[in-house]
Amino acid sequence: MKQITGNLINAYYICHRKLWLFAHEVNPPSNNPYLEIGTLIGEESYKREKREILVGNIKIDLIKKESGNTVIAEIKKSSKGIKAARMQLLFYLYQLKRKGIKAKGELLIPKERKKISMELTAESIEILEKTITEIEEIISKEKPPLPKKISFCRNCSYFEFCWS
């Protein structure tokens, strides 16, 4: 079974077809403008913080100490997929907790000047564990789910895989 990552968690809350394609390494063109914008925002924001830390199967955008607490952050280009971004960050906190690391989280949206503080709760752990089970079911299927037109389609890097 494929190892679950933050990107898979995020994709689950956006589109199950995107989730399946990503999990099966069907990759969008690397020169996709939406991917390039996201990368540029991540590179240009918060330059003074420690960046892109790999911990097992997760890649944390930022890590810092604040009032004696470890704080990890996920940077997003907009708040359009806020639920997916929240769940991705909670997944990172969950994975760290499983490794014995207690941390708090921040969702950062520099273009909107938003900072959303988050903490892992018993309820969010329960939701994540259910989500992980459902992701495993989706990606274990031989074929991707059929495309469904949603608000994210227009700017999706996988658009051609669904609507061309």
Beta percentage is 15-25%
Distance between the termini: 30 Å
Class derived from helix and strand content: alpha+beta
Shape: globular
Cross-sheet strand order for the largest sheet? 1-2-3-4-5
pLDDT averaged residue by residue: 87
Radius of gyration: 16 Å
* Order of H and E elements: HHHEEEHEEHH
Residue share in helices? 40-55%
Oligomeric organization of the protein chains: single chain
The helix tally amounts to 6
Low-confidence stretches: 34-38
What does this structure look like?
- A five-stranded mixed beta sheet has the order 1-2-3-4-5, with helices on one face.
- The protein is built from six helices and five strands, in the order αααβββαββαα.
- α1 runs antiparallel to α4.
Secondary-structure blueprint of this entry?
Elements: H1 6-14, H2 16-23, H3 33-44, E1 50-55, E2 58-66, E3 69-75, H4 82-98, E4 104-109, E5 114-118, H5 122-139, H6 159-163
Parallel strand pairs: 3-4
Antiparallel strand pairs: 1-2, 2-3, 4-5
Helix pairs in contact: 1-2, 1-4
Describe, in short, the structure shown.
The protein is α+β, with helices and mostly antiparallel strands. Helices cover 42% and strands 20% of the residues.
Give the tags:
about 160 residues; alpha+beta; globular; single chain; 5-stranded mixed beta sheet
